[in-house]
Design brief:
globular; Rossmann fold; ATP-binding; 23% strand; Acetyltransferase; seven-stranded mixed sheet; single chain; eight-stranded mixed sheet; Aminopeptidase; alpha/beta; 898 residues; Succinyl-CoA_synth-like; nucleotide-binding
Length: 898
């Protein structure tokens, strides 16, 4: 249900505590005491028939006795009483509740009974089994936490109550404050995605930190995470990184946990920074909260102690960070300001007697080098120079945490001597860390987050990637034929034909029905090849090499017949019931310097289809050098997947090894991604090995598993955790002498907004946004243009000649995907030409195709032009129930026929 009615929870004007108590040690007593201690300024109504007064507050026997309508209810009563209380509260008008009570299990039926009681009233429930809710800005502590958190601008979401209270304790000692703390509990109703949606638009929240154990609704979670991460830093700890821990987490939360590699890929794609330890959570948040994402993250180090610099380099390399390589011009400039024995490399060792002037000169030169993306500045205490004066020299160059526009991370080593220098740096707005390891880890946070943010803004299409040509009909025909046979596994020839239809190079393959036909097929291939390979074709065998079903390096036709006979004998010994369909004969592909790769797809039980890349061959499980990503992919995302493996670095070439044809590998990854998008019936695919060298790639073997029931369907695949860019909604329209290009919005369109808004009259903007608006901050433009096409759609009209933005139609669906709110704005100088009608019609068609039942728009009563167009289009117009100045225009899609 996303954020509907959740505002009643975070900013209530009245509060009922049901199950409040005076009994020492009871949950009801702790909750009441916390509410009173934090000073909640609204009405507080304890409810318990055993008391007349609790904590100086009049206590009521029943919900019905409360003198007003509690906007928020806190429930700490026995499990069996909760559904009835929720119903009573809903009838009274309460729209949000925090159910601290545990024990409302699925098995008992109490959880569903609670949800059924809430549904008629759209009453939102946080919990059950939660520590509670704390909103310091509202002076609200509706929890049984042991401390009163400080007010700050970081929001905390936690699926574990114990982790939430531990972080509250840590934050108290480290002077960290919170905008909100929400213990999610069992997430029967309100989940992490709902809270992310809420916090993304909260002006009091600068950053969001999360502790997750499971992701029960991945598509909803990723949609919300991507929306939040576009406008503020989101840092996550996801437990269950190993199989045993994942099992424990599932037991604890009653939800499934995906494979850790997939979770990592999903969070990266959402633009979220994932870290591993609780101690890193706020440090990571503080680091990335200072800076914007970077295109590259090469670090340059300036230090007065060479050993300290080496320690940082070692840790940076361990963490996969890049070092800057200075230009010759920078080296010469440093030669002029540093002693002759300086390091003449990165790290820049300016020697232990470095004066403030030397610090300033060296930092200034290094910050201006084009290869420097992140600047690390260090100081080791010596008797020859003052750490405080060095800090002042560095601080004099700083502006908004940067020097020369480059992020600065400082590390003044030591304790007593360094303390004053750190204070100077912090006062100047520079990030300060105590140890080389700390500053290296902080650098890795910034690098990892920047890469995640780069992935976030990618919008791969639902159609062909780049200039590749895919034959969807040919691939579909093969899948239909296999499904008609009732088979779930394609044979090798069929699998190769499918991937070949999507441009993946494969060797010539002849399928022979018998050893004798194998001999004739081999003779034909040996006429143009030196050797052949013979492979088993059987529906009963998934991995041919496991049963001796592959024979290589055969130089004669008779040898091929003998190989087929030997394969049949081995298979009969291994599994007498296995059926042999034939033998695949193909030329031996000999590329002595080629790398064996594995590329494939599978379905994660939580996040759906995923794509794998890594080191291939028969030892793929032993080597275990793989990385995964969520489809859809584009060229950049495919390249990032390659770079996250060890073999990816080997593919770039080294010593006398030439680099492989990387674009060819990227094309295969994009082809697999497109197959996943196009065919929901594909369960898994393997290409192993894919040989890759400087000449290109070739798939020596392929395996495809399908769901015969789903094989008839065509995409876009609805099981994708991230919806692809809906390329099918692009079209050209002609209005008079002008041509307009209509398409879904893209992140790059943010650059078109300023000129569009300049040419749109203030009154038109007022009518669109229901209030005057003079300023559209960059953050808002990012939010308007970087959508995930799942809950929100925006269609833009671009001028065919200039490419300028001419109009926008926007649609935002409610969480049950029945009704969507729409908005429409056409540039003032282009109004009255029919463009608004065209955009509205396209939006209506999209909404209908997306399964929505109706679209509705809210507009001011004086917006007569829009109201007239809506009436002509078939909308019904009604007065807004809460504001007589507003009108609601509703179009029922089932009967709409303008």
């Amino acid at each position: 249900m996303t954020i509907r009615n959740l505002h009643h929870a975070i900013a209530p004007r009245s509060l009922a505590i049901i199950g409040a108590s005076s009994r020492a040690g009871s949950l009801g007593r702790v909750v009441v005491e916390n509410v009173v201690a934090m000073g909640f300024e609204g009405d507080v109504w304890p409810v318990n028939p055993k008391y007349e007064e609790i904590a100086g507050l009049h206590c009521y026997a029943r919900v019905a006795d409360i003198p007003g309508i509690p906007e928020l209810a806190i429930i700490v009563t026995p499990p069996k009483s909760v559904p009835g209380l929720i119903r009573e509260l809903g009838q009274r008008g309460t729209r949000a509740a925090v159910v601290i009570t545990a024990g409302l299990s699925i098995e008992s039926g109490l959880r569903q009974a609670m949800l059924d009681a809430a549904r008629p009233f759209l009453l939102r429930i946080i919990g059950p089994n939660t520590v509670g809710l704390i909103v310091p800005a509202a002076k609200l502590n509706a929890s049984f936490a042991h401390l009163q958190p400080q007010l700050g601008d970081i929001a905390l979401l936690s699926q574990s109550g114990a982790i939430a209270t531990s972080l509250i304790d840590w934050a108290a000692d480290n002077h960290v404050g919170f905008s909100q703390i929400i213990s999610l509990g069992d997430m029967a109703d309100v989940d992490a995605a709902d809270c992310l949606d809420l916090l993304a638009g909260d002006p009091k929240t600068r950053a969001i930190v999360m502790y997750l154990e499971a992701v029960p609704n991945p598509r909803k979670f990723l949609s919300a995470a991507r929306a939040a991460a576009r406008v503020k830093p989101v840092v996550v700890i996801k437990s269950g990184r190993h199989a045993e821990a994942a099992k424990a987490a599932a037991t604890h939360t009653g939800a499934l946990s995906g494979a850790d590699q997939v979770v990592d890929a999903a969070l990266r794609r959402a633009g979220v920074l994932r870290i591993e330890g609780l101690g890193e959570l706020f440090n990571a948040t503080e680091t990335i909260g200072r800076f914007f994402p970077l295109e590259r993250t090469r670090a340059a180090i300036v230090t007065n102690g060479g050993g300290a610099g080496v320690l940082v380099v070692d840790r940076l390399v361990d963490l996969g960070c890049e070092l800057a390589e200075f230009s010759p011009e920078s080296i010469r400039a440093l030669d002029h300001v540093l002693p002759a024995n300086w390091s003449r490399a990165n790290p820049v060792d300016i020697i232990g007697d470095a004066s403030p002037e030397r610090y300033r000169a060296a930092v200034d030169i290094v910050s201006k080098d084009a290869a420097t993306d992140i600047l690390i500045i260090m100081n080791c205490p010596t008797g020859l120079a003052s750490p405080v004066e060095a800090a002042r020299a560095v601080a004099s160059l700083a502006e908004a945490g940067t020097i020369g526009g480059k992020p600065v991370l400082t590390c003044w080593l030591g304790s007593r001597a360094a303390r004053g220098g750190r204070h100077v740096l912090q006062e100047a707005g520079l990030a300060s860390y105590e140890t080389p390891a700390d500053v290296a880890i902080a650098t890795s946070y910034l690098a990892k987050w920047s890469r995640a943010q780069e992935s976030l803004v990618r919008v791969p299409s639902s159609r062909t990637n780049g200039d590749a040509t895919y034959d969807r009909d040919a691939a579909h025909a093969i899948l239909l034929r296999v499904a008609a046979d009732g088979r779930w596994m394609l044979n090798e020839a069929e699998a190769k034909a499918v991937i070949a239809a999507y441009g993946v190079p494969t060797p010539e393959t002849i399928v022979a029905a018998s050893p004798e036909e194998t001999e004739r097929a081999a003779a034909a291939i040996l006429a143009r090849a030196a050797k052949v390979a013979v492979k088993l074709v059987s529906k009963s065998v998934t991995h041919k090499s496991d049963v001796g079903g592959v024979v290589l390096d055969i130089g004669t036709a008779a040898g091929a017949r003998e190989a087929a006979e030997a394969i049949a004998t081995r298979l009969n010994h291994h599994d007498p019931s296995a059926v042999i369909e034939g033998f695949a004969v193909q030329p031996m592909i000999e590329r002595r310097r080629a790398r064996e790769l594995i590329l494939g797809t599978s379905r994660d039980p939580v996040f759906g289809p995923v794509i794998l890349f890594g080191s291939g061959g028969v030892s793929v499980e032993v080597v275990a050098d793989t990385a995964v990503a969520l489809p859809p992919l584009d060229e950049m995302l495919a390249g990032d997947l390659i770079d996250r493996t060890r073999i990816g670095r080997l593919l770039a070439g080294f010593r006398d090894e030439p680099p492989t044809d990387r674009p060819a590998i990227v094309r295969v990854l994009c082809a697999l991604s497109q197959l996943t998008v196009d065919f929901p019936g594909i369960v898994s695919m393997d290409i192993n090995p894919l040989l890759a060298d400087k000449e290109g790639v070739v798939a020596l073997d392929a395996r495809i598993e399908i769901d015969p029931v789903l094989a008839t369907q065509l995409g876009p695949n609805r099981d994708l955790a991230i919806r692809p860019y809906p390329a099918g909604w692009e079209k050209e329209v002609k209005l008079g002498e002008r041509t307009f290009h209509l398409r879904p919005i893209k992140p790059a369109d943010a650059s078109l907004y300023p000129a569009f808004l300049e040419k749109t009259a203030p009154d038109d903007i007022r009518l669109r946004f229901l209030a005057p608006r003079k300023y559209f901050p960059d953050q808002m433009l990012v939010r308007l243009t970087q959508i995930d096409y799942e809950r929100e759609m925006a269609l833009v009209a671009l001028d065919g000649d200039s490419g300028e933005l001419a109009g926008i139609a926007r649609l935002y669906s409610d969480p049950d995907h029945e009704t969507a709110e729409y908005g429409l704005l056409v540039r003032t100088d282009l109004q009255g030409k029919g463009l608004g009608w065209i955009l509205l019609a396209q939006m209506k068609d999209y909404a209908k195709a997306d399964g929505l039942k109706r679209i509705a728009g809210i507009m001011l009563h004086e917006n007569t032009r829009m109201l007239r167009m809506c009436r002509e289009f078939g909308f019904s117009i009604d007065e807004h129930p809460a504001d007589a100045r507003l009108r609601v225009a509703t179009l029922e899609l089932a009967s709409a026929s303008p």
